[in-house]
Specification:
Largest sheet of chain B: 2 strands, antiparallel
Order of helices and strands of chain B: HEEHEEEEH
Helix content of chain A: 55-70%
Largest sheet of chain A: 2 strands, antiparallel
Distance between the termini of chain A: 30 Å
Distance between the termini of chain B: 17 Å
Helix content of chain B: 40-55%
Oligomer: heterodimer
Number of helices of chain B: 3
Strand content of chain B: 15-25%
Number of strands of chain A: 8
Structural class of chain B: alpha+beta
Structural class of chain A: mainly alpha
């Protein structure tokens, strides 16, 4: 059969993202496996102790989702059954179990059959609470020294709570900026400037103000002297009074600011005294401008708002920095909420900076092919960063959950899709390029408008990894199937993956990074 | 007693195999399926006189480094498909000359008339190839993807049962 001629079109399918996804799914499965094996190893020693309890608790449900909340509730119920004396302390038990489940590591979203795991955990809690018996000791030991872990958890939580309270109290107790008169009177001082006026010594702004008002009132009455001498005297006095008043005002303001700085014990507050004063001055000037005829008040109001929001943002950033510093000084765990919040915000900031830079490069005419490669690398790095943070904060539920949200938004191809679309949009290119060419001579090029719902093949990996990690339980539940990851075999799991895919609609119209292109044209 | 762990190791093995299979075979299958859509579009749109061009459109698939490429176009025997696709410009037709630089020009006869020279009209392009590509690509991609997904499903279903 003769080969294909010199003129042809090309359909190209980029499979590397798909393979990266498969690799990610492999990693997820490995993590899952390790996590489940750890759980099984931990629960095995107490299994025999819980046979009775397992039967007693089995009526609670045939299957349930082993989220932290659910397992805490089930465990609390089972523990109450085990230990009637604990009746009424369910909330406390739930809190303890929630801590355990997170400390035990990463199985928070798996579906399991029966209430066995919950009962096992409940038994561990019961034994840990009672602190006696060989089985209890063994169970606690197998669970990673449960008592010590719980204590560490409590210590971390307490330390975090203390640090937060201290920070909050410092912020709340930061001295308010007093008015000039109030600040001086609070300090029992009078301004160090005085003026002599009409034979009297005026020491306070109020006295000077009254004297000036009296003078103005007399001026308003006109020249009532016989030869104008009195008015001239009054004018001279008024000018002197005005100058003295201005000097006094400046002195008072300066003194007030020094007093504020000296009186602020909170380092954070001290840091912002000058910032606030600068902002106040700026706002005051803007308000004066607003009163000038011809200035648009809306514009000035917007500028005032910008100043205020800028100050707020600066204070927020410094507060976070101070919080991190305080947490470090107090010796909080590196996986504490404060550090976690900082890390997440730093990651999001990096992503924003990257997005802006990619956009700038795209607008500058950098070839899309190079940008796409760069973006693919960035996605890989982002995935690695998210995975590292999830590992680091696996024991901090609030941070871990936020990381899961971040991962859904930016991980496993999310960032890449967003950036790719941005580049395509900025450079006005379709999702594929169709060409007609002969070897060595391009005759015609047509931009293919591939109005397809397909994203890239990384979605496929998302689906595999995501289904394994997060979505399969809900999909199985939605399908009313008795698919059980923990007790199932690989065939069940494989079918569950396929079923979950369709149940969740994760794959339909979403997969495969297929580009239509000619060789060398991408 | 719940809490058994079975099957995940098998799954890991299956995923490992899946990646290798994907590179070698699934991409190829998906590409062939997608390229067939484009080919069918070309066959429908190609100018038809004898049907030779229509029946001589070929697909050539290659996979390397995770990238699959399918070329779709007329075979060498149907080279004129490319000419039809691109069209031709206008060009002059002059009578041939006898051998030698001073050879006498031969007569040029077009139809029943002898003419000194003539101008060949341009042939407009009939872009059946690009039309097929641009218009049928979305469906081709869909078909290719679906083919891959079907292969994954079949693969998952065929994983041998057994647990650790």
């Amino acid at each position: 059969m003769p080969g294909i001629g010199d003129v042809f079109v090309t359909l190209r399918l980029e499979g590397s993202a798909f393979e990266r996804g498969v690799a990610a799914a492999q990693a997820q499965a490995a993590t899952l496996n390790a996590s489940m094996q750890r759980t099984a190893a931990s629960t095995a020693p107490v299994a025999s102790q819980l046979n009775e309890a397992g039967r007693a608790a089995s009526g609670a449900g045939e299957k349930f989702e082993l989220s932290t909340r659910v397992i805490a509730r089930f465990s609390a119920i089972a523990t109450q059954q085990l230990v009637p004396a604990l009746d009424g302390s369910r909330q406390a038990i739930e809190g303890a179990v929630a801590g355990i489940s997170h400390l035990a590591g990463g199985y928070g979203t798996l579906a399991v059959a029966g209430a066995g795991i919950a009962v096992v955990l409940a038994g561990v809690v019961y034994n840990a609470i009672n602190g006696s018996g060989f089985a209890a000791e063994k169970a606690a030991k197998d669970f990673g020294d449960l008592g010590a872990t719980l204590r560490r958890f409590e210590v971390d939580a307490n330390a975090a709570s203390i640090a937060q309270n201290n920070l909050r109290r410092n912020l709340e107790n930061r001295p308010q900026i007093p008015s000039a008169a109030q600040g001086l009177s609070n300090l029992g001082l009078t301004p160090g400037v005085s003026i002599e006026f009409e034979g009297r010594t005026l020491r306070t702004p109020e006295a000077i103000r009254q004297a000036l008002e009296g003078l103005r009132a007399r001026q308003a009455l006109g020249d009532f002297s016989e030869a104008g001498g009195l008015k001239g005297l009054a004018d001279r006095n008024a000018e002197a009074a005005r100058k003295s008043f201005d000097a006094l005002s400046i002195a008072v303001q300066s003194y007030q600011r020094v007093a504020q700085a000296a009186g602020t014990s909170d380092p954070l507050g001290k840091l912002f005294v000058s910032e606030i004063q600068i902002a106040d001055d700026l706002i005051k000037k803007l308000k004066e401008l607003r009163d000038v005829e011809g200035f648009l008040p809306e514009l000035v109001n917007k500028l005032i708002g910008d100043v205020e929001s800028g100050l707020t943002a600066k204070i927020a950033a410094a507060t976070q920095q101070a919080g991190v510093g305080a947490a470090g000084s107090l010796g909080l765990s590196p996986s504490s909420l404060i550090f976690g919040n900082r890390d997440i915000e730093k990651f999001q900031g990096d992503v924003s900076a990257l997005t802006a830079e990619i956009g700038r490069l795209a607008q500058a005419g950098t070839p899309a092919r190079d940008l796409f490669n760069e973006i693919a690398d960035a996605q890989g790095k982002a995935d690695a960063s998210i995975a590292a943070l999830k590992t680091k904060y696996a024991d901090t539920p609030a941070i871990f959950n936020r990381l899961v949200d971040v991962e859904r938004q930016l991980g496993s191809g999310g960032l890449q899709r967003s950036l790719d679309a941005n580049v395509r949009n900025l450079q006005g290119i379709g999702q594929g390029i169709a060409t007609i060419e002969t070897p060595g001579l391009r005759l015609k090029e047509v931009t293919g408008q591939l109005a397809t719902a397909f994203g890239d093949a990384g979605e496929n990996s998302n689906f595999l990894a995501g289904v394994l990690q997060d979505d399969l339980p809900s999909a199985a539940s939605a399908a009313a199937q008795s698919v059980v990851i923990v007790t199932g075999n690989v065939n069940d799991l494989a079918r569950a993956v396929a079923n979950a895919r369709f149940e969740l609609g994760l794959l339909i119209g979403q997969q495969a990074n297929i580009a239509v292109a000619a060789p060398g044209n991408f | 007693m719940a809490g058994e762990v079975r099957g995940l190791e098998d799954l890991q093995k299956a995923l490992g195999g899946l990646s290798a299979q994907m590179r070698a075979q699934f991409l190829t299958d998906g590409l062939v399926a997608g390229a067939n859509v484009i080919r069918a579009g070309m066959q429908t749109r190609a100018p038809r006189r004898t049907g030779f061009l229509n029946s001589h459109i070929e697909i050539q698939v290659s996979v390397a480094s995770g990238v699959g490429t399918a070329k779709i176009g007329p075979q060498r025997d149907a080279f004129y498909g490319g000419i039809l696709q691109q069209g031709t410009k206008a060009y002059p037709i002059s009578p041939k000359r006898a051998r030698g630089r001073r050879g006498k020009a031969k007569a040029l006869k077009i139809g029943n008339r002898f003419v000194a020279n003539a101008q060949r009209k341009p042939m407009p392009p009939r872009p059946f190839m690009t039309d097929a590509l641009t218009q049928d690509s979305p469906r081709a991609i869909q078909v290719a993807s679906q083919k891959i997904f079907d292969r994954i499903d079949a693969y998952c279903a065929a994983v041998p049962k057994g647990g650790a």
